[in-house]
Amino acid sequence: MKDQVFIPSLLLALCICGIEAIVLPRLPENIQDFKCEDDDIGFKFNLTDFAGDWYEALRLPNVPGMECLNVSIPSEVKDNKLSLDLNYVTILNSSWTLSREAVSFPWNNSTQYGIFHPDASEVSYKLVTTDYVSIAVVCGYGKNSVIPILKLFTRDREVSEEIVDLINTQAEQYGYSSLIYWEKQSLEECREPSGPVVGYLDCSVLTYFQLSIVQVRVLRKQDISPYRCTCKCR
């Protein structure tokens, strides 16, 4: 699948742009055989170094419904669980709603190797690689995966135009630029709007991961249909 070729191309582009070199995972010689669910995909990370805020810069495939995702990772586990705080904007009927969630994973061997299986979700995620100071690459998959989910997280809120242009050029060469989406992350775009139309969503962990389930099932951009969140604002 063409989108699978994009993963190493993405990492190469970031290195070319001057970001600190990172240790790449071992990928098969035939990149088209890359599958996120394979046992050898995963990254044993140092929680202390990995802790802090990460901003989702890029996601593939391009599915509407969410912007401004920020994941906050603690420097230590509590009660043998790793708890992540998620902040993002849910787009419902053209209105933006600030959403907050907390999701916990057992601090077991799987989690320590960057493999995350959210409860009650069809989607699992794996940390492919990180340099701790600049980027983290995450892939996702599900039982009905047609193409893998790919997410690029950065320490900086906004990615430079140089990186955006280089990655977009790579994607265009492989013919899937329409699947890539650069997420809104500027303070101006992600700040809490004034006015009565926006509230906070206090939803279960399914909210974010339900949006991810839509991503797993998308093969072509024209297959995307609007997603409606079932949670109610308070």
From TrEMBL:
Keywords: Signal. Residues 1-21 form the signal peptide. It comes from the Eukaryota. InterPro entries: Calycin. This is Lipocalin/cytosolic fatty-acid binding domain-containing protein.
